[in-house]
TrEMBL record:
<feature type="domain" description="ABC transmembrane type-1">
    <location>
        <begin position="23"/>
        <end position="218"/>
    </location>
</feature>
<dbReference type="Pfam" id="PF00528">
    <property type="entry name" value="BPD_transp_1"/>
</dbReference>
<dbReference type="InterPro" id="IPR010065">
    <property type="entry name" value="AA_ABC_transptr_permease_3TM"/>
</dbReference>
<dbReference type="GO" id="GO:0006865">
    <property type="term" value="P:amino acid transport"/>
</dbReference>
<dbReference type="InterPro" id="IPR051322">
    <property type="entry name" value="AA_ABC_Transporter_Permease"/>
</dbReference>
<keyword id="KW-0812">Transmembrane</keyword>
<dbReference type="GO" id="GO:0043190">
    <property type="term" value="C:ATP-binding cassette (ABC) transporter complex"/>
</dbReference>
<dbReference type="InterPro" id="IPR035906">
    <property type="entry name" value="MetI-like_sf"/>
</dbReference>
<comment type="subunit">
    <text>The HisPMQJ complex is composed of two ATP-binding proteins (HisP), two transmembrane proteins (HisM and HisQ) and a solute-binding protein (HisJ). The HisPMQ-ArgT complex is composed of two ATP-binding proteins (HisP), two transmembrane proteins (HisM and HisQ) and a solute-binding protein (ArgT).</text>
</comment>
<keyword id="KW-0997">Cell inner membrane</keyword>
<dbReference type="InterPro" id="IPR000515">
    <property type="entry name" value="MetI-like"/>
</dbReference>
<protein>
    <recommendedName>
        <fullName>Histidine/lysine/arginine/ornithine transport system permease protein HisM</fullName>
    </recommendedName>
</protein>
<feature type="transmembrane region" description="Helical">
    <location>
        <begin position="198"/>
        <end position="221"/>
    </location>
</feature>
<feature type="transmembrane region" description="Helical">
    <location>
        <begin position="167"/>
        <end position="186"/>
    </location>
</feature>
<keyword id="KW-1133">Transmembrane helix</keyword>
<keyword id="KW-1003">Cell membrane</keyword>
<keyword id="KW-0813">Transport</keyword>
Length: 237
């Protein structure tokens, strides 16, 4: 039994030809969804922090919907719901995009991650000390420079602890990818369990892999926090 499990995990934990391992698929889902979600969240957070309701309102609605509904439902909508629409089949590009399980999974993960990251960054932007903004205005900076040189750098630093938790939660959320038949770590563990009925060994290995990734992420974020948030520590006399 152990030999069978070892053979399965050797085949799926490491790349084999053109097939990516379950570990690589999980990391790919995490990196792409976090990266794209963050890039989309920065301008949306600026809009969300705006005092103009016509600008902040649509962003609030978007974050409310995606934070108020389960990611599992969002994944099902992207994977099966949207593809069932006649308008999608009418365009070859849309048809090809939503026919691919990986594209649908990344779309759902990215949109969900963007919603949470937007609220985290918007909160940090709103919490920026007004004295910093006044100092920038005294230097004659334009509104664009104030955002790029003062508000955003300060907000991104202060949002780091909360954002690190969101990244870890996104890693846990990647376990839903098996719903779209994506061969991530959990999907591999389920395949091993189905083939060998060794549930404890299969899912224990999966748990160890997820824990190892989390510890690596925590280590990286803690180093970044010590470096980027050092100015918040009390200064000795």
């Amino acid at each position: 039994m152990i030999d069978i499990i070892r053979e399965y995990w050797q085949n799926y934990l490491f790349s084999d030809g053109y097939r990516l391992s379950g570990l690589a698929i999980t990391l790919w889902l995490l990196v792409v969804s976090i990266g794209l979600g963050f890039l989309l969240a920065v301008p949306m957070a600026i809009a969300r922090a705006s005092s103009n309701r016509f600008i902040s309102g649509p962003v609030w609605l978007y974050t409310y919907v995606f934070r108020g509904t389960p990611l599992y439902v969002q994944l099902l909508l992207c994977y099966t719901g949207i593809y069932s629409l006649h308008a999608v089949h009418s365009y070859a590009m849309l048809d090809a995009f939503f026919r691919n399980a990986m594209n649908c999974t990344l779309l759902a993960f990215t949109l969900n991650e963007c919603a949470y990251a937007t609220e985290i960054l918007a909160g940090s932007i709103k919490a920026t000390a007004y004295g910093e903004i006044e100092a920038a205005q005294a230097y004659g900076m334009s509104k664009f420079k104030i955002y790029t040189r003062v508000i955003l750098p300060s907000a991104l630093r202060r949002a780091l602890p909360m954002y690190s938790n969101e990244v870890i939660l996104m890693l846990h959320a990647t376990t839903l990818a098996f719903t779209a038949t994506i061969p991530d770590i959990l999907k591999v563990a389920r395949d091993v369990n189905a083939a060998t009925y060794a549930s404890f060994q299969a899912f224990t290995i999966a748990a160890v892999l997820y824990a190892a990734i989390v510890f690596a992420l925590l280590w990286g974020f803690r180093r970044m926090e010590r470096r980027l948030l050092a100015f918040l520590k009390p200064q000795g006399h």
